[in-house]
Amino acid sequence: MHVITSAPGKVTLFGEHAVVYGEPALVTSIDKRVYVRLRLRDDKAIKISAQDLHIPGLIVTLREEEVILETDYGKVIPAISYIKKAIELTADYVGKFRGVDIEVTSDMPVGAGLGTSAAVAIATIYAYLQALKEELSKEEIARLGWRVEKEVQGMASPMDTSIATFGGFLYIKYRGSEVTLRRLKINTQLPLVIGYVEREFKTADMVKKVKVLYDKYPGIVKDIFSTIGRITEEALRALEVSDVIRLGELMNINQGLLDAIGVSNSKLSTLVYVARAAGALGAKLTGAGGGGCVIALAPGRSREVAVAMRLAGARTIDTSIGGEGVRVEKVINA
Ligand code: PMV
Best mutation site among 16, 120, 207, 285 for ligand 1, i.e. most ligand atoms within 8 A of its Cβ? Predict the structure, then answer.
């Protein structure tokens, strides 16, 4: 029996970095997904194939046991670690272990800050559970995925794994292991253009950089975070009444504060400015920064904004948001 599952990527609309300090964030899934095809084996081996990742600019190298995925915009992802850890922790959790053959494919760029590692982890957990005929709640799946990310990366918030599990829009806040999640019903059309550029630093490096600034200027940086928290709350109200003008303005204010804590860079700032000049209502970096992605809210101007970003050196993705969380795509009984 083969099981094919998929989980969506994501963008953070508001509140990255501040979320690490207990402030709320708003995050949404996108309609680009990662797919995992899994088959149980009769032995205990875990065999992973990621060669099918047809992504422009992706180099796949097989080095010893590890599949290394490198993108030509500068990110290396040890994808196999997430898959192996997801299998191990799930097996441990349900108290059953069977080896697996796994194939991973993706219809979004890997390692650009769109939450692909969390999507891989969650889709793997879900496929393995289906194959083992075990049922866990979505909450348990999201928590398992969070543990996978923490064990592989050393540090991670529950944001990416929660959105990969539930999809849609989430309001999320956490402190230690205590997570507050609100699944939001949003009817607003939010045409986002995503532009991405080379990522110079890993998420963990950016989080550390912010921590250094926080320790040096605690009073100032704490105030910046609580202001970002207020922006997020205000954005939630704007989303609820479909006020896209206000949302755009709030994105711009959030961007200014992300710049203030040192996570933007000249490439990201350039994209933000060209997007606004091309008619975006608002634009900001999304995720950890130091390269990676910019999102622009551009109702009726998506094409112009995408062209402007590409002329400024970015790759772009046109996507709608709020896609479904982890799901079974197919079960093939063969
Ligand atoms: O770069 P990403 O998509 O992994 O986003 C990181 C978001 C941070 O708030 C900076 C860190 C976190 O763990 O929430």
Answer: 16
